[in-house]
Amino acid sequence: MSVPAALLVDPADNVATALGDLAPGERACGVVLGEGVARGHKLAVRPIAAGEAVIKLGFPIGRATRAIAAGAHVHSHNLATALGGEAAYRFEPTARPAAAAAEPTTFEGYVRADGRVATRNEVWVIPTVGCVARTAQKIAADGWSRHAGRIDGVHAFAHPFGCSQLGDDLAGTRAILAALAGHPNAAGVLLVGLGCESNQLDALIAEVDPARRPRIRVLRAQDSGDELAEGAALIDQLVEQAAAARRETVGLGRLVLGVKCGGSDGLSGLTANPLVGRMSDRVTAAGGAAILTEIPEIFGAEHVLMARAADRAVFDRAAALVNGFKRYFLDHGEPVSENPSPGNIAGGITTLEEKSLGAVQKAGRAALTDVIGYGGRATRPGLTLLEAPGNDAVSSTALAAAGATLILFTTGRGTPLGFPVPTVKIASNAALAARKPGWIDFNAGMVLESGQDQAAGALLARIAAIASGEQTAAERNDEREIAIWKRGVTL
Questions:
Q1: Cα–Cα distance for residue pair 4/16, rounded to 1 Å
Q2: pTM of the entire structure?
Q3: Which residues, other chains included, contact 477 with Cβ-Cβ below 8 Å and sequence gap of 6+?
Q4: Is the domain of 309 the same as that of 202?
Q5: Domain residues for 29?
Q6: Each residue's pLDDT tens digit, 2-57
Q7: Taking every annotated instance into account, which residue ranges of this chain make up the domain SAF (predicted)?
Q8: How many domains does the chain have?
Q9: Do 403 and 266 share a structural domain?
Q10: Can the peptide bond before residue 437 be classed as cis, meaning omega within 30 degrees of 0?
Q11: 106-111 and 79-80 strand pairing
């Protein structure tokens, strides 16, 4: 199929998105450009009056700050956000179309004793506090050097927190680490404590799912004569247990998808994010779960999600979460619209409304069945909304802690970061995929050339392969990080 010069998504839209760099005098969407428009940026398809709403994806993305001629470039010089602070939301559920029947898809996963299915069979080394982060890394590296090939990996997840924290801030750190320790991809976990830290080992273990505790070993560094040797012996025990696991064929509904975008551009909301939305729909229609987070990056589009709330209680929790996050910004003297990032702006995204309307498409059309707090675990089929900020590392860590066994991460500009679970990097445009093959796992730019159906089939096949053990680019590059949301004072 031929690729047009620009894409107009909804008949109500008064702007289109350039699919390549356009020069003055070129024709796109029935108008002649009066100035150059870069790929991913917007052009007016009809005159827009000063103060008039600019419409993209069928919804307002802000207001024109001056009159805009047809064929003009529409960006931060003539478009501004219309977002305010907290809002009063009304429960107005909309009918959801029935999911289309699809051919059953399977993958080869590790079925755990609690019924959850893992995409990897690994041993994780988790420090309680930053003081023993390097110790944890040394233990993991030594363990993998001795056991490579017996399981899928031995990995340490260093972080700088766990001490000099108080109250909810400390509780958040503990909740994230406990949730990671209970993750199905971790066939075994070594918790490494120092001894004098605020995040005491016994309190941390008490928060781990009881069904997972037999797979946990503990090392208290201050009590050990040789913590590296003791850690090596404990790793040996965990690897012996983990090595007995074997993959078996399971349905797509046993997958838990985390969906995330980072380094977005003007094409993210047109190619990669809608494509990921189709993956969310396939998984949830099969009885599985999808998890959406980045709460500040749904501001301006929250109504799209709330209209899909399964019931009034879920709606009320979603509204409280969104308004609570807005209040978090306002209490720190910051506007709720202090987004998009410089990279987003360079890529063509002008306002937070525009970014959010593109971002929420990763959630597809599934019912919103649950809302959970930071450090919480997703337990219901369907779509779960998770409390976490937009920061890539913090929110992706929260997705893994919530139980995501695979993360679909869309990007228009690229990033090498990887996280505790396989993280599939999906480029919004073919140029990025070609330029950074060492980072990117899938080119969603093919949507523009081959159509949504063919691209969706290709991505679903790639997801099944990765869930079955094929490494992502981040895994091949040994990019595995966690980041914890620091919200309180530091002693």
A1: 11
A2: 0.95
A3: 416, 418, 438, 439
A4: no
A5: 6-80
A6: 678 999 999 999 999 999 999 999 999 999 999 999 999 999 999 999 999 999 99
A7: 13-80
A8: 3
A9: yes
A10: no
A11: unpaired
